[in-house]
Amino acid sequence: MKAAHGHRSAFGLNFRLAWRNIWRQKRRTWLTALAMIFSNILLVFMIALQLGSYDMMINNTLSMFSGQIQVQREGYHASQKMRLTIGDIRELAATIRRQFPQANVAARANAFVLVSSEDRSFGTQVVGVEPEFEPTVSSIPGLVTAGRYLEQPDAAEIVIGEVMARNLKVNVGDELTFLGSGKEGSFAAGVVTVAGIFASGSKDLDRSLAEIPLAYFQEAFAMQNSGHVIALSVPELSNVAAILGPLSSIISSREGLVALDWEALTPGLKQAIQADMTSAWFMYAVLIMLVAFSVLNTQLMSVLERTREFGVIMALGIKPRRLALLVLLETFMMALLGLVIGVLLGSLVSTWFAHTGFSYPGMDELAAKFNMPPVMYPSLNLVSMLLGPVVVFVFCLVAALYPALKLYTLRPVEAMRAV
Hints:
Blueprint: H1 2-22, H2 26-66, E1 69-73, H3 76-79, H4 89-99, E2 104-116, E3 121-129, H5 134-137, E4 144-147, E5 157-161, H6 162-168, E6 175-181, E7 187-198, H7 203-208, E8 209-213, H8 214-220, E9 229-233, H9 239-251, E10 257-261, H10 262-265, H11 267-305, H12 307-315, H13 320-356, H14 363-369, H15 382-399, H16 401-406, H17 412-417
Parallel strand pairs: 3-8, 5-7
Antiparallel strand pairs: 1-9, 1-10, 2-3, 2-6, 2-9, 4-7, 5-8, 6-7
Helix pairs in contact: 1-13, 2-11, 2-13, 2-15, 11-15, 13-15
């Protein structure tokens, strides 16, 4: 009990000494602390803004067409072969819809065809969709700028992108002919009327995608009641993991079906995010190193100024280890001060922009290239709040190791002679 009490008393004494020592030079302490506070505010805001932009990029990309989860025949995602179909696809989609009321579900079928107008012909992807459910999964139905979206499940009509419409020189009400291969290699052909033209903001998508009703698609391509994809859209990305497991159990009764999440469906999107985060951390690393060197300079000057004082203390029997721990405790307290204030102010700044949005001059044009909104909203959570400041905190402690270890080389007699 006495030993424990002695340890607590020693710690309390060290704590008071450390607190007193860091305020010996108030101006220098505040300059160092302000450097940490500023860097922490910047890191909290920038990381929150990055995470928010990633969420926006993912949601915007997935809501455009693919959805967050897809049920497919095993191997279809890699090869896109016509014969890799899901039997009774609309019935399975209805079952999934009943099991997961929080998700929006739509069945689809895909084919690559040659589509022709009176003047021109182009190769494109045509997708058979359920007109009733497709608007809940994809944002394309809401982006129709001329005409209307599909309405009847078996009507001979088509919705195309504005770039395709321009290339084919057609408008709403004109007829198009398509030629392709059916499920078993049979000849597939049809004449459809342009019901609507959409503008997604992505030239590639507007050039290469067309949609027709699923029932008409199945008839034209000899698909019977089959299709290729059941797309699911959920309100939040965090819901994907909770749905994926039960969904896999439901489709396990049908041999060869798999459930793929957005990371498997769009690996390039995840890689782009990882590359952007890596490049951003190079910039953050420069900021963190500058703060760490500022702490190193402050603590080294503090140790050198107290060389004679440390020599007298060591001559009285105090071990260098205790003095080194005192220096580290001083750094700990200073870094903790910067962390707490920096996280608090950084969170307030991020919360403000999370409600008002953040934009800068020229962002409208840049966002339009990636089909994103012109305003970004920071995503404030424990990761964005603490990741950067904790790294700064650790580097500051590491930077204080050199001044602390320098005390082990101190000779009491020589130190007491120091001026």
